[in-house]
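User: I'm writing a short methods note and want a consistent example. For S-adenosyl-L-methionine-dependent methyltransferase, I'll paste the sequence; you return only the structure tokens, no commentary, since I'll be parsing the reply automatically.
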Amino acid sequence: MSVAKAAEGLHKLFATSIGDPMKAMLLDNARRVCAPLASRMLTQIGLDSESATPFKLFDNACGPGVVAAELQRLVRPEVLQQSSILCGDFSDQLVGLVKERIVGEGWVNTEANQIDAQNTGLPSGEFTHVTANIGFHVIPDSESALDESIRILQPGGILGFTTWHRPAGWAPDVQMAFESFPFEAPFAANLVQTTPWGDWADVNWVRKTLESKGLEDIKVDVFAFLSRVDGAEHFMASTGMMIDWVMQANWSDELRKEHGKEEVHGLVREFVEKKYHGRGWDQTGIAVIASGRVPRL
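Assistant:
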């Protein structure tokens, strides 16, 4: 499977209509998997309960609004009242979900717009902080997205982002399930990176790249954490979309016709049910947490 095909399939998933079941899945996954990364990243760039200085932040490739939600939880209300948060994503469906959350959850000074991470159209030197949580490694032109993120930062502004260092927690179980099938089930998706530029899983590459882009005070760490899976049904609800992506990206049309989604999902469910004895389990996530500062004038 080519990187381009993997990226195309992944973007199609998030460009399609998001119904209530998918919304629930995205928000549950955001809480269990993405929020710990965002929280760690925000602390690294100085935006947490200790923050006293107002900020102007752009969350690039915002997804369902994980970073904005964590800012509402972490930052003191009096600081939020003097700050602003802009969430941007290529998917109007995800932007719509964030707008619902802004209203429904009462987020302070937060907006959401459909914005292309590779060409934001935002003014240069506009923001004190730019973030991208689990984003750069799946953006088609990730170098342009990185350059844009730096361009729109003020002098002294801070970039913070996370990428996967190892495949996401669901991947090993799905791969083992595929290998147990009574038929050949290819599992060759690049689950760490779908962009052709760079090596976003490599800590050394990330550090050198930020240096080459002129950033200072660079910090790149690896962060490991656990996320709870309640059981086989919960695993399938949260992972089914990614299983479909792996099938679309790696299987021939003929193989997908012979063994459709219902059969494959059933076999994966049966595998994890047996492996974990009908109980819940913890998944391991390992991510890169990186930050750097634009030079001050």
